[in-house]
Amino acid sequence: MTTDADLKLEAATKKFGEVVALDAVYLTVRHGELLTILGPSGSGKTTLLRVVAGFEEPTDGQVFLKGEDITYLPPAKRDIGMVFQNYALFPHMTVAENVSFPLEMRNTPKAEIRKRVEWALGIVELAGYEKRLPKQLSGGQQQRVALARAVVFDPRILLLDEPFGALDRKLREQIQLEVRRLQQKLKLTALFVTHDQEEALIMSDRIAVMNGGRIEQLAEPSEIYERPVNRFVADFIGVSNLFEGRTDSRNGDVVAVRTTDGNLFKVRTPHGVGPGEKVVLLVRPERLHLIDADVPAENRLSGSVREIVYLGESEKVTIGLAGGGDVLVRRHTEAATPLAVGDAVSVGWRADEGHLILDSAGAAA
Amino acid sequence: MSAAAASGLSGLSRVPGIRTHGGAVALSLPTVVFLLVLFAIPVLRLMLLSVESGSLAPYEKAFTDELYLGVLFNTFKIALFVTAVSFLLAYPVAYFLTVATPVWRMIGMFCLLMPFWTSILVRTYAWMVILGRRGIVSEALLALGITDAPFSMLHNMPAVMIGMVHVLMPYMVFPVYAVMQRVDPNVMQAAFGLGAPAWRAFFRVYFPLTLPGVLSGATLVFILSMGFFITPALLGGGKVMMIAMLIETYVHEFLDWEFSGALSVALLTFTLVIYALFKRIMKAEQNWS
After folding, report:
1. Does the pLDDT at position B13 exceed 70?
2. Of the candidates B189, B196, B288, which has its C-beta nearest A91's C-beta?
3. Which uninterrupted H or E stretch holds A170?
4. What is the CA radius of gyration of chain B?
5. pTM: predicted TM-score of the whole model, two decimal places
């Protein structure tokens, strides 16, 4: 992957009356990368996409596509391929006509159109469906037509607006991977918008987590999951056990945290935090281990099993803590000692399995 | 009827498919009886009148005499023009209603529906007031010095068409509006996003998507135009002849029921043929929805 910026937003701002949908956002999408904008509804992610597509004019700031300022360029002149939430296929046109449309609008010669359409339908595995109408296709097939239509004219960037929402779970997973493979094969730069964190983790090169019109964190999926910069990101991505408290003593890069309910936990952190600072300690459920009461551990909590949710290859165990509150443990079911609700258990984790979030960073969330 | 209603109701709790069917038959029965007695039977009676004498002479007269063929052709021409003009005027209005804010939509709807509260007769007389020799248009142009003598714009083809379009345009607006409302705005954005300038997006996507509404509106306006009577009679002043006026003349002035019957059959047949044609186009056009 090269690091050329294909798409660049500089201080892009969009206000609807008093509401700030996009708050001076800076974002760079590199050539050939799939960058996901992830956020809850109302976070500004759709507005961001619409500003890039040209359906919305920013109140302030600029948008650059391959170095060209496209801030005020009409959508038709941007050369952007877009896949819409409900596909937005032209219902009165056949599959072939739908896919030809962008080429037709560019006055591409007929023979060239035929070749390109054949190629595009080939890569989405819909050869032979040329004469069908959208209503004669399944949801997954319509999705693929929309994708073929968006890539057939070799767009400068591909935009995907929650394109998998209408598909059932199994099909969705399959198409997610297909889209990802296609994007990598064609070396397309893609901007993908979703509220589904799992989808974001599966598909992205990088993820930008949005909230309140701002990007909270922009990083690779593993970084976002393992080392969220603030409480909002930690909460939004995956399931978290969060302990609020203040920093206590420090030993090298291991900091002791005194939680509000009186526990002392050790956590390894690169942050240079002094003592007495407000922090949140994050421990992912799969980092918590059920341990025997006499085994020593860097961090330990005890309580009793309150609920067990069986998920096939793993199970989620909610443990009611002796000191109040509860924690969630996720463990593989094979070779696990059987548990029953009410069993007294201990959980432990190492100092490097926790992650320290400075509370000031999450103040906005 | 009560038995049918009872079986319809008893089915209500069990078979969902049957219950609506039986119930619908029972509920539509009064209307069916009403139409049968007051519409279908009189029309049939009129049609039979034309052949009661045992000869097809009235039909021969209707379909060979150039005078009557001319009137039929004239009627067809007027209907076609009125439909075309109604479409040109109604399409932007329907679009306005589709994109307008709720308040403007309400105002627009009110303006469209208001004429329905006034009798056609009154509205036609209103046009006579506007277009006549002492009418508003003539007086205004006189006052402005554009003309130096009062003139009448009545008793010609344009006057008839103006009056008819005025009455019939709402019948075009509503079906088109109904279809426009269902056009997915995302589809239009997709067209723009994929490189279509506004006019190409309109002709390649928006217009085809609203065509079913245009066709059903056109069917309504055309068929209503074919049978129009009061407006052409008053605004045409006898100089513009449509088939309904011809039928009226033969009933009232010549008491020739046989020939009136034959003309009615001709009108009905012609209208049905046009209707079937429209239906066919619509079916071909709508296979995607």
Report:
1. no
2. B288
3. helix A169-185
4. 24
5. 0.80
